Fold each of these.
Amino acid sequence: YGTLERRIAWVSTVGFELETIGAGGAALFEGWMQQERATRGTVTEAEGWNALALESSILKVLGSEDAYRMLIEAAKGWGGYGFSEDYPMATLIRDHWVDTIFEGENDAAQRLGTLFKSLIKRSLGGKIPPLVSTDETWQAREAYLAERFSDHPLLPAMRLAEASKETVNLAAAALMAMPDAINLMHDHSRVQHIGMDLADLVIAAFVNHYVVARALKLADHFGEDGAAIAIRLATVSVYQRDETVRNTARRLVNAIYADRSTGRDEALQRLDALDLRPPIDVLAHRAKIGKHM
């Protein structure tokens, strides 16, 4: 029973993430459209999706891959029946796997194609302000969170979500500081490793931001007790992604600097300084999520 409970908790957490970023992406698109219509008058939906290509790519990659993983986990709960065509799980798995290929295969077309190139384009154009957060800015955010949400159950997840954003800032800044950054696209082997890792960091920061924001909004509306499950879901979501984010960031920094030691040690030290994981009983959170669901 414990294994099934853990599986239910994992599937519920991923479902919470997908539902959240879907609504967040739609709100982002509508907000962009309204702003452009107010300033320009006429704007098409195609222009909106082109402007938000990075966010659209994140939704496509995460939506297709995590939904497929959810189905695999759910099928395990069915045992051998999960493989039988007499039951719905096998059909769902077969039909949804192709979503990772349709509309651009997730690795080559999405991570390396749309997502990585969109990030580089925005970085060079200064459209992600600011790419590099100063230590003072980071310390100011830390001080604000500690003062404003000192007793809030979401504070640990909020700090980790901010740390994941800063991780992207550090990685992107290191990439832009490369002497051969402009020529990186011509080194296909290297760009694939760097692009895949940077894309995964951006996806993680995007999800962390939205799940924490949603849980915080629910807590403000229904109170901490009324939003207890949402708070647990957001906390587990951010925590179970954190170790992967840190390992990916270190690998990425080493790949960016390659044989150059100048700047690499400093970047790694700043990454280590972002290790803000306070002791949280994630297993207890998962158990309560599993029982509730």
Amino acid sequence: ADTAGNTQTTTVKSTGQFYFDNNDPTAGTVTMKLGSASGSAYTDNSWTNQSVYVAKNNGADGSGESGHSSTTWTIAGTAESGTSKTLDPGSGKYATYSIVLTTKDVAGNSVSKTYTVKIDKAGPSAPKISGGSTTYATSQKIKVSTASTDSGVGTVSYYEYYKASNSTAPTASTSGTKVTTSDNSVTFSSNIAGHYVYFRAVDGVGNAGAWSSAARVYVDVNDPTVSAKNSSVTITAGDNVAMSSYFTTSANGNAAISSTVYKIGSASYTNTSSLSAGTYTVTCTVTKVGGKTA
């Protein structure tokens, strides 16, 4: 407007292209392998007893949109500058790792994706076992009396046992035999002369735990033997002859003979019982520790 009040309006036009991008980009991904980059695939959020190799893969933006700007990641809350890493809590330990991957486009839109890696390298606690004896029997049963506990995956898959002929305890690398009974027991029913039996647990991802203390096992399944030295014998009156001299006995195994019984008819006699003149049929019965008789 001038001082006289005259006005004029002019329209100014600007030409060009304006771009708007309010779409989220495509999130990046994480490659996860067991042990190393060449290992088999690791399943997200599952337990394993191996280390896990993880590698970051960049995200992308759609065609005609502002374009990919960055893909960053954190592992267990710590920003990572590299593109790959091997996760491992260390021997005898367990850990859960949260991996958060964030992809941004040039327009500032962002999207995040979370992965979880769970590694358990800790074995279960040692169980307590019961059963066995230092006295011979025809069979002996050893079983878990107090179950093992596990802190990582949290489950015990099975137990295994180890039998040794001496008191040298098994080590972590000692192989055991899997226990297959529902009550986690093992019954020994063949000849064993004072062996030592240990149990341990194996968790849900295959970590073997500590061995238990030992239980002793003594088993003798053999019958003793007894035989008459002669079909008949004549004893002169007044002679002092023990009944044991008429028979040959043998334990026939590791368990000792616990009793020897002599009978004439239904009456029992000691080894040195006196008999009046006459003809007698003497029966000898031997019993071993554990109950085997002949």
Amino acid sequence: LGTRDWSRPNGPLTSGEVLEPLPPKGPADRRVLVLGGSVAFGTGAASREACWDRRLEALLNPPGATRKVRVVNRARPSYNTAQAFLSLAFEGLEDAPDAVVMLDGFNDLAVPLLLGGRPGEPYYFQALRSQTEGEGSWRKLGRELSWHSRLLQLVRALASPRPSAPEALDGEDRTETRRLAGRNLLRMGELLKARGIPGLYVAEPVVFSKTMSPQEAARVAVQPWAPLLKSEYPPHAAALLSLARSGGGRTLDATGMFKGVAETRFMDDVHLNDAGQEALAKRVAAALSPLLLKR
């Protein structure tokens, strides 16, 4: 996986896409690494310039600044905390970050709650395979394993059709989902702490925590999973925040950052429009700036 080019349009990565490498890092330069899923990626923004990470970079480089802060976004749509951890370990640390922002956790809940998957499973096996696929025979083996896993998923889906509306998690799956996601956050924290890199875990905002605009309400009304997310996500996010803090990590609870805001900020249940992207950038910049001043 390459580093996302700053000038390319916002959108999902395509298979085999080659992206430009990072420019050399100067002595006075600072880098912020962003990890997570589609919210961290910037899904929902109307343009690349409107993405929250691009806005964050602008906020961290005020006029007259003597050093350049570059935001490196390695988030990928649908990534959960396990995939973000792999991204950090195998590619993110090579970016020589001075701080890491982890904006994820929702996808860990969405897979067992909305898709009927097992706790800890990724949205797509293809995404996980791309993290570990090698060259030559390993590449061929990876393709074969991916094909067989997709076939197995299809057979299981046909043999055990799921109801149209998702069901609430049982206590065991709920506990296991939080345990696995929390373990991934703690492992990321340990990896960063060993290298003296500050990390910031941000719990994603959701539309259910605000006064919905007519547009937001209409979009949520057609989503059969909305009632479940409304009840399941807040305690899930609170548990991950608590686990991240227990490991000495810095956290930012952004779940309710739009509470009392009646204007439209979401494109759906979690993805932000341009105004929402701007607000998220400001919130993260305020929490991140003190960490960068110490570098």
